[in-house]
Structures are given as C-alpha cells and as structure tokens.
Amino acid sequence: MAFFSSSTTPTTPYFINSFTPSSGLSLPSSSSNPLKLPLFWPWQKVKVGPLSVSPMGFGTWAWGNQLLWGYQEAMDDELQRTFNLAVDNGINLFDTADSYGTGRLNGQSEKLLGKFIREFQGGKGLQDDIVIATKFAAYPWRLTPGQFVNACRGSLERIQVEQIGIGQLHWSTANYAPLQEMALWDGLVAMYEKGLVRAVGVSNYGPKQLLKIYDYLKARGVPLVSAQVQFSLLSMGEDQLEIKNICDSLGIRVIAYSPLGLGMLTGKYTPDKLPQGPRSFLFRQILPGLEPLLSTLNEIARKRRKTVPQVAINWCICKGTIPIPGVKSVKQAEENLGALGWRLSSEEVLKLEYAASEAPKKMVQNVFQTR
C-alpha cells in the first residue's frame, strides 16, 4: 500500500495558513491542556507538487541517532505515541533519510516510520494521507543511476510502502565529486519514471546548483517540487534568502530544517546550561550573542501566550516555508503543534529579524551545502 496525500485542495502553489490569534483554534502552550482541533482546515494544506501536506511537518533525524540526540531503543514506545499525536492533529508530512541512525541502527528512522504507520490506530483515512519525504545519501560508492535507484528500493523496503511521497537528494557532490552528481540526478529521474516516488526534491543545494538541477530535471520532464535547506532566525543569510527567492519564482516549496537552530531557539539553554554531546561546542560559540533575539522571542511569546519555540517555528511559516522541527517526545510534539493556528504580525516578524541580525554569530551552514 502506498502512503501519500489523497486530499483535494486548491491548486495554488503557496496556500498559506491564514488563521489569526482571534480564531480561537490555537493549541494551548501548556502540554497539560487537551488539544483543540482543528489546528488548520483541510483546504489550508500546502501544495508540494502533486502532494498536499500540513503547514508544518516533523523531522525524524533523532530517531536512531545515538551520537547527537541520545537515541535508545527504549524510546520507541514514546516515539510511537509522538507519531500518533502528530497524525491525529493533522500532521501528515514526515521527513527522514536513509542515513538516519548511527552504527548498527543505520536506517532506523525509516524503519520506525514504517512501523508507526502500520500500527497507527487512528483511522485508515489519516493513515493513507501520510506523506513520507526521505533523503538518499550521496555515498561515495553510489556512482551510477542504478545504485541510486537501489537506494530508493532499500528505503521502500525499510518503510514497507510501495511508493515514497518525496524522494530527495540528501546533498550535492558538486563541490568534491562533480562526476558523481550527474549520476545522482539521473538516478532521481529513474526512480521518478519507475514510479518509486511521487515527487522529487533536493536538500542542501545552494542557489546556483539548485537552478542547474531544476533545468536538468525540467528537460527530462521531471518537476522539482521541493528544496530542503537550513532555515531559521539563525539561518537567514544571503544564500538562504536567494534560495527562497528562486524557489518562489519557480514554484518550488522550501522545506525548512532546523527551524529551532538545533535547540538554540527553544529558550532552554544558556551559556551556563548547555546540551550534552557535540552540540555543546556550537552552542558555546553562538549562545552568548543571542540575548537580544531570545529576549524578543520571549517578549512576543508572553504577549501571544505562546512559547518561544512556537514563535520561532511560526516565523518560518510566516516566511512561506514548511518547517520540520524534530520531535522525540509527546511533550515536544504538543509544543510544536502550538505553532499552528495563528500567525505573527508583519511588525512582529520584522522585530524578530532585526533582533536576529544583531547576533554576532549565526548558525554554521551545512558543510555539504553548495553555492
């Protein structure tokens, strides 16, 4: 059985949630309160090529990653409840990758997603509407289109579906192995033509390379529907804004990963209270200069009766992107859902961006992002 969106929605490429705070439909900030439905109406889903997805998706990088996110298999029951809560509340886009999962747990994120879909008890309609966007790694040994198609078949087997919603190139090899890049592009075309994916996208492609692959795919009759890029109040540099402008002009949807800056925009951490693991080094460099931004986030959150993460995610939605914050607990999912059903004012958006521009150091861009 294939899991993808079957909803009928308007054909406008960028139909953005138009709820206002007065709508009364926003999720309470406190996780102890019951959820209020709906957070958005069916016609407020976002078009991504042939697919209709929720205004926000959830990322599953942490599902299987022991090094950065401290994953343990004992967390799986909590992850299942997290998934169920998300789907029950209208989230139908889940982003993953064939490289998610460390060591022996490589591919664990895809396996868990497949398991959670099969065991979902909330109704077949919701289950069939789920869109999985997975990314295929440009490993050095994937040198031919056929090897890339086989990678897609491997993901299908792990997720146990007949068709993937969006098949994405995880990164470009243009900076270090340009000959491999063309094989990957041809592999993307092949998996689309074989019906293994409903749509194709890219991740970590800079503006120049994005235009090149768009033109190449268009010439082959394959539409490029999405471009995934690090995008947040800490990641809105010239490249990000140029990518966004290109996507808007070509009808490509921007999927914003790390909308909370790996956690720096949650308000949970300070220079004296850092996360464990590799993130602590990055946080130590950036957090001391974030006081103006975090203060502004807090101020708006208090006035809106929201939380800091909800405001930061809502900013991404207001910029016309689909944020995919990571979740690994019911509490996180509840909080992230509170970013839906309302919109920051244009004044608040500008205020946040000005505060962000004052930060002396921004997020380090992905090493694989091309120009």
Structural class: alpha/beta
User: Which shape, going by the Cα principal axes?
Assistant: globular
Question: Compute the gyration radius: what is it?
Answer: 19 Å
Q: What proportion of the residues is helical, as a percent range?
A: 25-40%
Pfam families: Aldo_ket_red
GO molecular function: oxidoreductase activity
Domain NADP-dependent oxidoreductase: 55-352
Keywords: NADP, Oxidoreductase
Molecular structure report:
The chain is α/β, with parallel strands linked by helices. The chain has a domain at 43-262 and 320-342: TIM Barrel (Alpha-Beta Barrel), CATH 3.20.20. It contains 13 helices and ten strands. The chain has helices at residues 66-69, 76-88, 108-119, 124-128, 145-159, 178-193, 207-219, 238-250, 279-286, 291-304, 308-318, 330-337, 346-357, and strands at 46-48, 51-53, 58-59, 93-97, 131-136, 164-169, 197-203, 224-230, 253-257, 322-323. The strands form two sheets. An eight-stranded parallel sheet has the order 3-4-5-6-7-8-9-10, covered by helices on one side. A hairpin with a 2-residue loop joins strand 1 (46-48) and strand 2 (51-53). Helix 2 packs parallel to helix 12 (330-337) and helix 5 (145-159) crosses helix 6. The longest helix has 16 residues, at 178-193. The N and C termini lie far apart (39 Å). The relative contact order is 0.16.
